[in-house]
Every structure is written in C-alpha cells, then in structure tokens.
C-alpha cells in the first residue's frame, strides 16, 4: 500500500508540478491576487510591494551561490572525493544506500543546514556512482529530506534568535535559553523520532527494480577532468603563479587562522558565512594550486543559475505577502479556531502554509512572531513552544518547496519534478510526527 501511494504521488508530481522557476512565478500571481481579493489592495499597490521586495534577498542569494560553489569545489578535491567514496562504500545495496544518505543528511542538517545540504547531495551522487541499481531520484530526495530537521538543530535561527540579547520580541517573551527550545525534551524527541522514521520511510518508498532510474556518472568524470587540467604555457611567470603550491598555502593560511581564532573565541557556532569561509579556504588548500582551484570553481559556477534567477522572485513574493498584510490574515485564520491546547499545533500548521510563500526562517519569524506570541501570552501557552512551532513549520514544508531544494538539485543534476513526489510522502510522515509532538508535550 505504501509503495502504491508513493507511486501515485510521484506520477501526480511528474504530471502537474511545473519547473521550479514556473512554480515561483505561479506563487507570485497567487499572492498578487490574494492581496487584491482578500486584503483589498489595489493592483498597483501589489505591483509596488512586489517591486520593492524584489531585490530583498540579494545578500542571501550571494550566500547561497557561494555555499554551493565552494561546497562543490571542496568536494572535487582528491581527499574529499576519497572521503565520500569511503563513506559511500558503507552501503552495498540500494536499500542501504537510501538509509545511509538519509541518516547522514539528518545529522548534517541538524548540525548546520548549509553544510548538510551540500554534503548530503554530494554523498547521494557518490552513492549513485558506486551502488548499482539504486534509484537516483529517491536517493537525491532522501538527501534533501534530512533538511526537515534543520530548524530544530544547532543552527536553528528562531531558537538562537530568542536566546540572544536585544532580539525583536524581547519585550514580549524575554530571553529564552536554548535549553527550553532546541534542547527541550519535546524538540529532541521530535528530532530523534524523525531520524528513526525517515530512513525507514525512504527505504519503503524504493521502487521496483524495473521502475528505477539509475545515475550516469558523466558529470563526475567531466568535473574530475576540469579540476585537474594544468595551464598550457608552464614556463611563463603567470603560469608559475597559477601553479604555485606556496601561494595556495599562504592564502589559505589567512582564512584557516581566522577560523581557528573564531572557534576558539565563540565555540562551535556555525553560520552561513563561517561555513562558506571554511569551504572556500579548505578548497584552496586541498586543491594544491590556484589553477586547479579555479578550474574547479569554473565548473561549480554552472550549477548556480537556478538560484540566481529564482531567488529575486521569492523576495518579491515576500514583499507582497508581508506588506499587503496577507501573511497576517493567514495567521489570524488559525488563531480564530485555536484553544490553549491546539494553539501550538495550529501555529505549526499556519507556519507550514506560510512557509510555501515565505521560504525564509528570518522572514517568517518577522511576520508571525509579533502575531502569535502575544496571543500565546493571552492563552497562557509557553512562548518557547510557540516559537518552536513557528520554527518547525518553517522547516516542514521546505520538503515541497523548490526554493531550498535548488542547491541539492543543482549538484545532483535533477529537476524539482524528479524528487518532489517522494518529498510529498516525507512531508506527510514528518508532519504527523511533529504534530503529535506538539500535542503530547
């Protein structure tokens, strides 16, 4: 029965889900019309909201481009390829490959989502290259599926924000330590339950051998060739600089010394900038020469076009749904049917719905927190629990939101339609686990 449902989900998505760019365009018009017919805004007002927000994610877009490029470049070094091959070697059968990549994805994303997205995608590709007859679509979907735990992990932006002095909601909820959010019994139970259930679910979704689509390793071969090509004129001063190991060591030393200083001062506190810096300077060091590093970078840049084109459209959507008040209206719908018992659950569901249109943890927190937290105060509901409901809702529907899948899809060479049928099944299972967590605790 589970395989029948999975097959139906995959076929439905293949038939009806448009390309990730068109998905963003369709969401744009849904929000545009919603602002007009639900919140009474004029078409020109909605156009202005869209245009004002269109470039609002430029800094974040650059971060995502860099994490994809530097992660891809680091993975193409000899030592990282050997490490990935050794890790992939733990799986001998297609089922073991699915379970392994799911577990690694969950653990890596719990540590840091930027690190997890890149590592799990690269591991999936290596597993596909080593394990015969494993379905590549399900393998990549499993690599992405572990992303669902990120906001309950060490890099969760909501629990880290409300544990920091002078956050935007401090007057309402004060400072809430991480012991009450990411390290609470409720949150850890949800994370552990997902880490146990998701590998099993993904293994059960494995299609019959005749229906599997297997990986062809042409992309890896091309990458290896590009990453090891030397300059032709080896006697010129420019070529000597490009092939100088000393230069690579010196420049990478600057970054590595800073990273050591950073971790010595702040502990193992990862953010996007630190992950990018670590990928970048380790890549420079491990490639050995500037020329090898630049060749690998040039190859990696080819995977970033989807991010560059689509992220501004999501920024425009965020601008419209926030400025028009549509996001607040959606949240109020759920508040109107809530009780003290169901309020955290409905907050989670509303955050999941809103996340489809605002796929940004910080952006969603800015919209929902000022609405949900004062209501939590009135109902006598734990602020920490409601904050984590917003965080989990933000993470949950990322499973069917191509926005966050783009880096994984770029590294894997697949489209959103290839994995979203499987991700839809993961959405249902993890949604049930998270919902139960908010009702039980």
UniProtKB/TrEMBL annotation:
The chain crosses the membrane at residues 20-40, 52-75, 95-124, 136-162, 182-202, 246-264, 270-290, 311-335, 341-359, 423-440. Signal peptide: none annotated. It holds the Pfam family SCFA_trans. InterPro entries: SCFA_transpt_AtoE. GO terms for cellular component: plasma membrane. The keyword Transcription does not apply. Keywords: Membrane, Transmembrane, Transmembrane helix. This is Short-chain fatty acid transporter. It comes from Brevibacillus invocatus.
